[in-house]
């Protein structure tokens, strides 16, 4: 099996040693590993260093959402870790995203660091239309809201967004070809949806325009994770 450089494996585990075991096992097949809130809280930068030592790339999925100064400083710290990509919440606003992007670009130039891709979460894939309306108080449709937040991210100079497969085509037509679309909530036809509401199969997500798909539980909770990676990779290749 060739290395799949569009499938991001979410290392959603609670122990450094287990994460290392997963990286060592899957690095021949996976290029980008996602380090999220749980793993980064327990393991910190050492897991990022381990992934880099293996010659793989890191998507640091900490979804920064705070005042512009704080998000900008966190973004600079992420850039200095050498991650390939990190994210912020688009709902933090234009100023927050723009300030983070501009400050990261400046520091990377000054310190000769490869600039990380900065992407924005539009609406989490676990949020339904009903929750968006009743709990977040957003009265327009999911699609309209995602399109609005994607447009705002583009205006801020970000490289792309995290969006569900169901909105990928809309984001592509609104934001253009060079704009990255990273799609979680991916479920092969045999997998349970778990807490995800806006799911899609790997093939359909690629067809809808996703540049990367993110998968965690459908791979890690399976009896034969390698087999799942193989099936998903061939589905993506034929999309
Ligand atoms: O296990 P599963 O494939 O559902 O994991 C999806 C991963 O993508 C999780 O780590 C989750 O935090 C992340 N994610 C998401 N929805 C977003 C952004 C990130 O599910 N909008």
Structure report:
It is built from eleven helices and eight strands. With 239 residues, it is an alpha/beta fold. It has a single domain (4-238), classed as TIM Barrel (Alpha-Beta Barrel), CATH 3.20.20.70. The longest helix has 18 residues, at 94-111. The chain starts with a strand and ends with a helix. The mean pLDDT is 96. Residues 10, 12, 36, 61, 121, 124-125, 162, 184-185, 194, 196, 214-218 line the site of cytidine-5'-monophosphate.
Indicate the low-confidence ranges by residue numbers.
none
Largest sheet: 8 strands, parallel, barrel
Instruction: Provide the CATH superfamily.
Output: Aldolase class I
Report how far the terminal alpha carbons are from each other: 17 Å
Percent of residues in beta strands?
A: 15-25%
CATH class: Alpha Beta
Mean of the pLDDT scores?
96
Structure summary, number of beta strands: 8
CATH fold title: TIM Barrel
Helix/strand/pairing class, anyone? alpha/beta
Bound molecules: cytidine-5'-monophosphate
